[in-house]
Amino acid sequence: xxxxxxxxxxxxxxxxxxxxxxxxxxxxTFADLLAVTDGVGGAAYGEIASxxxxxxxxxxxxxxxxxDSLACxxxxxxxxxxxxxxxNRLLLTQIxxxxxxxxxxxxxxxxxLQGHEIIVGWVGDSRCYLLQDHELRRLTRDHSRRQELLDTxxxxxxxxxxxxxxxxxxxxxxxxxxxEPEVATAPVSGGDIVLLCTDxxxxxxxxxxxxxxxxxxxxxxxxxxxxxxxLVRAAxxxxxxxxxxxxxxxxxxxxxxxxxxxxxxxxxxxxxxAQTLITQFMESTYVNAKPCxxxxx
Length: 297
Prior knowledge:
By secondary structure, the chain is α+β, with helices and mostly antiparallel strands. 32% of the residues lie in helices and 23% in strands. The protein is built from nine helices and ten strands. A hairpin with a 2-residue loop joins strand 6 (127-132) and strand 7. The radius of gyration is 18 Å and the shape is globular. Mean pLDDT is 82; it is low at 258-297.
């Protein structure tokens, strides 16, 4: 089960984007594909950058995973990495073709849930968390100046949110030089919950606060479906100044005694608005590149 909530927060423009898909691979197994992107604030056409990044990841991975040549799970980390490299190349191509797009960029956190493993690829400060054995842990490490200062001990956690470079990212889609996505893998089992989110959530909610909301929603399908909405509301109440996007996926089936619920819900921001947006841009000149088909490992 996959659920999603996205909200513009106090901003007029929604530059976050999220997509998810379940595909049958060439070997007959199934994989869930998840992508959350966050157009860089203050840069030109962040909403186009985020749409391009998320849609390319889902489209390219879907095409690749439905071929027999990519049936080996061990190839997935490199496939995720190369797909993000191709997404970055796509944005640079669009920027080169359209002068008005110069400066557009987006963070990206993308994941493949396959069998008993999750493969996460990311650039920037959008995050992926895993709730496992009633404990939440972060699978990603922010690509930001703030994280670098924390790692070197030049900044303490209490000062991090107020630092003037708190939102300066060091890796992103649309990066012309030294672009390199990061990839991580982790084992998963039935009942685990994966959460992808933008920094509109994590800027104002600590990990333990996020954990409490996810734990409360881990017991039944109905409660699970409310996790993204509850996190969005919590971020709004905490005073976030950014867009907020939360995407949750639960591994495995619910116990047989639990009524099956298959609907997916969204938050206050209407899903049809996002669908209209992607239709408009897919028909525009900004999205004229075909999905990559040269992803064989």
